[in-house]
Amino acid sequence: MSNTDKKSFVIKRKGARFIMIKIYDAVCVYDKTLRFSWKLSGDCGQKNYQIRLYDEDNICVWDSGICESVNRHDIFCTAELEPETAYHWEVSCEGTDGSKDRAEGNSFVTGISSWSAKWVEPGRTRKPITDLAQPITTVIEQDDPREKLDPAVYMRKVFILEEQPEKAGLYVTAHGIYALWVNGTLVSDFLAPGNTSYGKRLEYQAIDVRAHLHSGENVIGVVLADGWYTGKIGAVGIGQQYGKESALLFQLNLTEKDGCRRTIGSDEAVKWNEGAWEFADLIVGESYDAGKERDGWLEAGYDDSDWKPVVLRDYGYEELELQSIEPVRVLRTITPKVCRTPNGELLIDAGENIVGYVSFELQLEAGQEVKLEYTETVDKEGNFLRNIIGQNKQQTDYYRCAKSGVCKWRPLFSFHGFQYVRITGTDDTNPEHYRIDVIGTPLETTGEFTCSDPRLNQLQENILRSQTGNMICIPTDCPQRERTGWTGDMQIYAPTACYEMDVEQFLRHWLADMRNEQLEDGQIPHIIPYFPSHDVMKPDWVKIIIAAGWSDAAVIVPWRLYEAYGDIRILEENYEMMRKYMDFVECVTKENPENEEYTEERKKWLSYVWNTSFQYGDWLAPSIVRNQLPPTITGYEAATLMYAYTTDLMAQICTALSENQAEFKENAGRGIGEEKRIYFSERASHYRDLNEKIRDAYAKEYMNPDGTMKKEFQGIYVLALAMHAVPEETKEATVKHLTDMIHENGDCLDTGFLSIPFLLETLYENGECELANTLLFQDASPSWLYEVKMGATTVWETWEAVDPDGNPKDFSLNHFAFGCVGEYLFRHILGIQRVEPGWKKVRIAPDVNCGLEYAKGSYDSIWGRISVEWKKTADGVDLKIELPPDVELVEIEE
Whole-angstrom Cα distance, residue 648 to residue 566? Predict the structure, then answer.
């Protein structure tokens, strides 16, 4: 807050009294232990707490006792939980002023005790695969998907009950995605069982269905669609990547009123058929012919004598795990605008770029077909334009009416990334007849930001909207074209993701898939889960599948989560993955390109330069795209600098693991022991030494003596400065050259994927705060606010996805990666800065000279909400800070 006098300055604790304001769902993490978290508000800190865990008979099965501790995040339960049991918990806290409060936590059900049901498949011959096995194709117009896709499968099983059971737990999973009804009631979640590392981990869902069962004949009915297992997934859009056919597994475990147990599962008694869904593909869309619906098939008494027997398969149960993150849900609904385009087409406009689908309630005639084509943009005249191209990227739904009257329909097995929908087959322009469901994984929003510049407010909204739309089961690159877990995107965006939402469990869940997908030699694929078709994307000469900045997510993401949430177990559970990956990188960097001669002196430093294998480099840097340069032109420079970055992080990770002690009583016994402490201390020294050699090697190989780079790209200067690879004696000249490059570029950025997270922070740390803010507020292309100026409601894949004349290009308009600037809004505009992992200590350092009149916002940390509000006045600045109990304000930067 330098150069500005403060008119007033207020610090207060959030709230007026000691009270429980947030109690989180108890969750099981990957070592199968249970953890509890809550938040407090009030003027005093927490003195102690007591947790009690109860079973379904309300018997206390675990009591933590009174723990004298301020800790309230990730408290671990040592009780051994029984399978197929419902539990609930409560926590009582006492404040330092003697006040007390108590709150009840969630109830949850543990997983199945054992499987006895059989995997079942339809006995049919699927249409031959005609997909082209080549990188992203530029096919725009394609054949009717009904000609190449298979129908969804109907399955049903009938069983008799003498009476309603006392307990009824249904456990379900599939190869594909399923919708499941019990006696006509839909009980499954959208897109179940979710997207994981199939073949290594497949999640199942536990559903309490007691209320839906009755005496007499009961029916379990399932529609089974292709989903990620056999659908047209990934960048290439190839089907049947994990198997030739979809399959189903369900088991209903009943406890009768007399205590007897009974199991009803998928077996040879299940029958199958085809029905109304002519196809149901996750990306292509759905085609529903109501005339083919099998009326009554979900109810008792239906005649299924013409249905076919299923085929039993032995896929085993080894990879099955109970789902450990929230399922995808409808987050909100939108009533869209309905209009005619200049060329006369009927168009739905959501008003924003979202992820979800359109449902409708229309008056139709028998045989009338409605077609819905989804897109993110229109052309500059306002006509429908499909900006996403490629094989099997139609994003199109069909509905055919069976009999005249009002028809209601919504997709069950697909979703789309879109703002606009072209509708043919109806002239109904009443917006009340259409509804848009916005979907996503329900993650708690933890970041709020508003300021005096509406453009920055829109940017914040765009960032949050892109994050919401790209966190569906896994963190994805985009919600329309690929929907894959590109590791580079996530590591770039992770700090902002942690400010904006509570992503701890969500990303730990994804990291479990990363551990599963790691190769035996330590390599980490570029996408997680790793779709088999991704091999098609590699050039033929590529034998190593890792790439710096992408595979580095194995190190960067766990560290970012640890910084945000302070749980050392995040590092513990991922350490072996990180170590194996870094060991492989060390081996790779010791190699040098063949057919080149090197002096003995140069060979020494080249052992620390990453100059082999395929590299993306500073991906999508504007000048590289604009000048049609090879994307890999910055590959080895960027790779070496990212190598310096990951070794620095590994040194910090090993130091944290070495210093890990049981800080609180509830964590007693989790200290890693003297032997491991010494091991991690030695590894930290190894990585510090390696980091120094890499930085020295980079300067010798890729820099000129005057502090300039041998390749003149903004992003490389940013990375070299951020990774401290610039010799101290030339640092001033390097910074000066970077600022000159930015000025010569019209005060616009020219940074790509790997450098953009460090651009503004690097300028800030090197005394160029004014220039950093100039870039933030810039609205000429390329810039963040250029996108806002062009009407963006999400963050784009490329800086110039829409040209200044308003012509969209064939890029995604919903990629969260470049939204990484959100961290800067929280760290510097608001000034909410973490001093140590977990936010126990904070620094408040708002940049009141950034050009705004005011800014206010908050970050809801694991301890509670940290709020900052500042406003310029005639006499200086009013600054208000609110902190949760037990969080220490280390300093206020002035």
Answer: 19
Contacts of 155 (CB under 8 A, 6+ apart): 120, 122, 221, 222, 223, 224, 248, 266, 270, 271, 272, 310
* Predicted confidence (pLDDT) at residue 801 exceeds the cutoff of 60: yes
ω into residue 135 within 30 of 0, thus cis? no
Per the CB < 8 A criterion, the answer to whether 285 and 89 are in contact is no
As given in the structure block, the two tokens for residue 786 are: 């250029």
Q: Specify the pLDDT at position 79.
A: 86
- The strand pairing partners of 436, in sequence order, are 334, 358
CATH architecture of 447-591+600-829: Alpha/alpha barrel (1.50)
pTM over 0.90? The answer is yes
Nearest in space to 153 (alpha carbons), one of 179, 171, 189: 179
Which of 352, 348, 345 lies closest to 337, judged by CA? Answer: 348
DSSP state of 576: H
Q: What is the pLDDT of residues 1-56, one digit of tens each?
A: 444 444 455 555 443 344 555 555 655 544 467 888 988 887 888 999 999 999 99
Residues in the chain: 894
Comparing 547 with 7, the larger pLDDT belongs to 547
Residue 542 pLDDT greater than 80, yes or no: no
CA torsion angle 393 535 798 390 (round to 10): -20
Q: For the segment 135-159, what is each residue's pLDDT rounded down to a tens digit?
A: 655 554 567 888 889 999 999 999 9
CATH of 330-440, one of 2.60.120.260, 3.50.50.60, 3.30.930.10, 3.30.230.80: 2.60.120.260
- Distance from C-alpha of 191 to C-alpha of 437, rounded to nearest angstrom: 14
Q: Which two tokens stand for residue 733?
A: 């000249």
**404 contact partners, CB below 8 Å, separation of at least 6:** 364, 365, 366
What CA–CA distance (Å, rounded) separates 611 from 589?
7
User: What is the per-residue pLDDT for 532?
Assistant: 86
Using CB atoms within 10 A of its CB, is residue 194 exposed (0-12), middle (13-18) or buried (19+)? buried
Number of Cβ within a 10 Å radius of residue 851: 16
Q: What phi-psi label fits residue 64: left (phi over 0), alpha (psi between -120 and 50 degrees) or beta?
A: alpha
The CATH classification of domain 16-109, taken from the options 3.40.50.1000, 2.60.40.10, 1.10.10.10, 3.10.20.30: 2.60.40.10
Query: How many of the other CB atoms lie within 10 Å of CB of 300?
Result: 14
Contact 94, 46 (CB under 8 A): yes
What is the CATH superfamily name and number for domain 119-325? Galactose-binding domain-like (2.60.120.260)
Domain map (residue ranges) of the chain = 16-109, 119-325, 330-440, 447-591+600-829
Measure CA 837 to chain center. Answer: 21
CA angle in degrees (0–180, nearest 5) for 308-313-316: 145
Residue 672 CA from chain centroid, whole number? 31
Q: Pairing mode, if any, of strands 320-322 and 202-208?
A: parallel
Return the axis-axis angle of helices 568-589 and 504-517, rounded to nearest 10°: 40
Round to whole Å and give the CA distance between 170 and 271: 19
- Axis-axis angle for helices 731-744, 769-777 (nearest 10): 30
